[in-house]
Amino acid sequence: MTSWTPQPQGLEEILRTIHDSTDMNIAVQRSITQKLNSFTRIPEYIAYLAYILSNLTQEEDRIRTIAGYLLKNNSRLILQAPPQVAEFVKSAVLQAFNDPSIMIRNAASQDIVAFLGVLEPRNWPECLQQLVNALDASDLDRQEAAFNALEKACEDYPRKMDVEISGTRPLDYMIPKFLMLSEHSSAKMRSHAVACLSYFVPINCQSLFVHIDNFIACLFKRASDDDPSVRRHVCQALVLLLAARPEKLMPEMANVAEYMLYSTKDKNENVALEACEFWLTFAEDADLAPYLHPLLGKVAPVLLDCMVYGEDDLLWLEGDAEDAAVPDKETDIKPRHYGAKAHGLERENADPNVQPQKPRIGAYGEETIDSDDEEEYDDYDDDFAEEMSTEWNLRKCAAAALDVLAVRFSGDLLNVLLSPLKEKLWSQDWLQRESGILALGAMAEGCIEAIEPHLPTLIPYLINTLNDPKPLVRSITCWTLGRYASWCTQPLSEEHKRSYFIPTMEGLLRMVLDNNKRVQEAGCSAFATLEEDAGPELAPYLEPVLRNLVFAFEKYQHKNMLILYDAVGTLADAVGRALADPSYVEILMPPLTNRWAKLKDDDEDLIPLLECLASVTIAMGQAFLPYAGPVFERCNNIIHQSLLQYQEFQQNPELDEPGGSFLVVALDLLSGLTQGLGMSLEPFIVSTNPNMLNLLTFCLKHPQAPVRQSAYALVGDMAMGCFVLLRPHMPGIMQELIQQLDPEPKFEFVSASNNAAWSVGEVALRYGRDEPEFQQWVDPLIRRLIPILLHPKAPRSLHENAAVSIGRIGLMHPTLVAPHLPEFAQAWCQALYEIRDNDEKDSAFRGLCTLVQTNPAGIAKSLLWFCNSIIRWSQPSPELNSMFSTLLQGFKQHDEAGWAAQMASFPPVIRERLAARYGV
């Protein structure tokens, strides 16, 4: 041991606190937590914990073990510790690792893994050496304990293990040792050996790949091991190899596939799940499709069989209860993410039927949240069918694999599964039927064209199955109907509507009011998907729809209430102004205001209600006016309180940073009120205290990006709806807006920059032509917007919003912007030529044409791009069309020979369309 020794007084205090921490009283626990947190400021704290763990043998094991866990949780403190403290901790932990008590050894093992990760093996080589040496110990317990610690280290930080220390690479001798130990007589040792080896596959570890053939031979040898844990790690290693070095497996694929199919049916669920991951990984790699295609006939039916509920699932799910009246446990309710409002433009090549997604409930209650459409940044992971139940399991993995296979192989997959799927759907056994319906939903996205001819039979079958006595069958049927909602809602014909759309709508509405909470959840979520797909087609059925949803407000427990808000908000988005009918307002508003009155300003449940109301206010428009006063006042109050809380945190960083969700949804609801009511908001804005617009200016500089994002959206919406009220505050607002325009924002700031770029254009339009007050900002704005437009890495949506705003500022202040035209003309046309025709694009293009009129030479080098963007318009407004015509005719008349030469170099499609439309 090193020279450090504890002070008796300090040791006594820390020991007493650990003893007190075993008291279960919540108030005591809270003060203990604060006290333990205060100890972390003492430089020697971790040495005291290590001393209690390793030296105080007179204390009971439980107390020493708690010290060990506190040591693990504070492992990062070793980086700032004085040298003698760090040395003492390292040697004390290694001493405890050899303690006679298994509890102490386990705690020390976790400490070793934590400290080895923080310090890295290169700075604690003696620890690594001790663990590797222990693998040769004569005592099996010591061997297994050492291997257990090594396995955790290899799993948690394989790259830190793959280093050179004093001229040698420890893995150069560890890997051959692991390969040798995969033959050990102890199953635990074999399992650790295979696991450790597998963790070095994804990091492309050369020490392993030198022995790759031996490694693969070792996997084949262990493939039929008696121990399921060993077989599970063999499957895991094969999955990792398939992802990292598929070329090594392809020559053996016939054998590997047979083994993995066999293992996918293993009685041990852990082995089966790991093997099933192999098919998911295989399907996700497009380059491997030619190797997977011939295996479809064998793989798909096995996956189908894996989707049947296991006995453990059924015990956990307690699926048969009529539990609508049973209150939810708070632990069942997952935290939800509330996204601030983002402004984007629709592109021509986007599917007009696909609307931006809200949080949506998957097969059994997970949220599938799509992040903003920022291609360069988006790391999209489709957490398909992730139930609210336990963790990821075989059923979910098989469903996810089938989903990916459907996207990859479409009709070929359906051909393979048609017969087994029919068998399941029409089986007498409800578990088989349920799994068939799940499979049908899983295949919806990829196989839709192949399944479409069968849907006239399948949709009525599914609607009928909503009457099944088993709640788990009804809930999965809701989810699957949601997956086919876009087919059911197609406005093909009155006959289609009568046969499929109306019965699906009625069936799902019945499920919304089911007596089983899981069915309610699936029904409500599927109905929200149907609303999104049906859009205005729902308007004629609003009364029965609203009556059902309103009845659900009486019936639902806490968790499903959150999904109900989503369904009401989605309905408002779908039908728009149709909701303004006084009779509908009368049905919907009382239960919403009733909920509103029950919730306090700091109640988390207020957040989804505010989000829902934001959609409702936009849809109802002026019909919402009787309810607007209290809503406006409460939003203002929430914003004020949230800003005060944040200010308190900034003055005292010891406090926890307050979340921004309340602030975001209150701002979004004000945006909704602004869009719905416009100038009718004047009396509310004028009478607020503190003034809402002063608060808004604070929100624009809030450190949290989602708050700024919603604040800029509100600026743009107020510019459109009630600019005269916003105008007196514009000097302060513009100062913040200009700051927010960043050509290369961090990922989390992208949407805030987006909304800032968009709102600038809205403000410029409302000021009007050559408005002196706005002129002071034109130059600083243009100097920031052009670099955004020209930045190769800025997300596409940011390019688009910047281009629109440059166009709009140019429309209002052409003489100030036109000199910059040569800098940005080509990038501007490239940013907007794919955007679908709309008013924003129209005003932006009128701006560009005005700039070209002011500075015709500025477009000379970008004429091809300009002409390309002109012909991409489907129906320009008469004013814009006339501007296009005048400019093109002007170019031609100014220099006919030059124009003809230019035209000759253009692609034929551009020449033809210009000639047909504008005669040039």
Automatic annotation (TrEMBL):
Record-linked PANTHER family: IMPORTIN BETA
Importin subunit beta-1/Transportin-1-like TPR repeats domain boundaries: 505-719
InterPro entries with a match to the protein in the record: ARM-like, ARM-type_fold, Cohesin_HEAT, HEAT_type_2, IMB1_TNPO1-like_TPR, Importin_beta
Similarity annotation: Belongs to the importin beta family. Importin beta-2 subfamily.
Organism the protein comes from: Leucocoprinus leucothites
Keywords, comma-separated and alphabetical: Cytoplasm, Nucleus, Protein transport, Repeat, Transport
Pfam family, one: HEAT_EZ
The organism's place on the tree of life at top rank: Eukaryota
HEAT repeat residues: 458-496
The protein's name: Importin subunit beta-1/Transportin-1-like TPR repeats domain-containing protein
Record GO cellular component, one term: cytoplasm
GO biological process, one term: protein import into nucleus
Location of the protein in the cell: Cytoplasm; Nucleus
